[in-house]
Amino acid sequence: MIIGGSIKLEKQQQLSPSWKSGKKHSALEFYIKEIDPEQEMSRTSFTNRAIVAGENVQEEWKTVRDELAKLKIPQGISTPTAMQINVEEANRPLFDKIKADMACSLGLNVVQTQYMMQLLWMNYLLYLQQKVQQVGIKKDASDLSGPDMVKRLVQILLLDRESDAPIIERIKSNLKEWEG
């Protein structure tokens, strides 16, 4: 019966890992909640999203580790004594795979839960930052509204730079063509 209890406890820890938290955990949670577009912002929810985002990292955990070392801790951030999450049943195999990938990539025999969460959350933060940057990059001319076009046209004309001369000439010819 004791053996059964031990196995049950081990499974329970895998489903609901808890760890002693540190400033990096608090900072990562703060930064993630700042830019994560999802409505559900509980620690468990964003960690499960982080598990999915960490699926294909495999050998790149060293890069994530290096970025974690550069993490700036915001002033005045509170740090709870301990943290806990619940891994969704669908994410359990992926959670175990990520832990094994981290150990292999970083050359560790054991990846402690505390460190695993820091790496997992750092990777998710990097993923979110990349998504935010891509949103700004993917705008093309067809997405410009009327006021945006006017703003840019006025800016080009007011700056009156020599490098804009060919653009101004194209705009003039397009306007003449439209009029004609």
Kindly list the characteristics that best describe this protein.
180 residues, mainly alpha, 2 domains, two-stranded antiparallel ribbon, 64% helix, elongated
3D structure, described in words:
This protein is mainly alpha-helical. It folds into two domains: 2-137, no CATH class; 141-179, no CATH class. Helices cover 64% and strands 3% of the residues. The chain contains eight helices and two strands; from the N terminus they run αβαααβαααα. The chain has helices at 2-15, 23-35, 43-53, 61-69, 92-106, 113-137, 146-159, 165-179; strands at 18-20, 82-84. Strands 1-2 form a two-stranded antiparallel ribbon. The longest helix has 25 residues, at 113-137. The model is unreliable at 1-13 (pLDDT under 50).
Mean pLDDT: 85
What is the rounded distance between the termini? Answer: 91 Å
How much of the residues is beta strand, in percent?
under 5%
Provide a count of the helices: 8
Summarize the structure.
It contains eight helices and two strands.
What topology does this entry show?
Elements: H1 2-15, E1 18-20, H2 23-35, H3 43-53, H4 61-69, E2 82-84, H5 92-106, H6 113-137, H7 146-159, H8 165-179
Antiparallel strand pairs: 1-2
Helix pairs in contact: 2-6, 3-6, 4-6
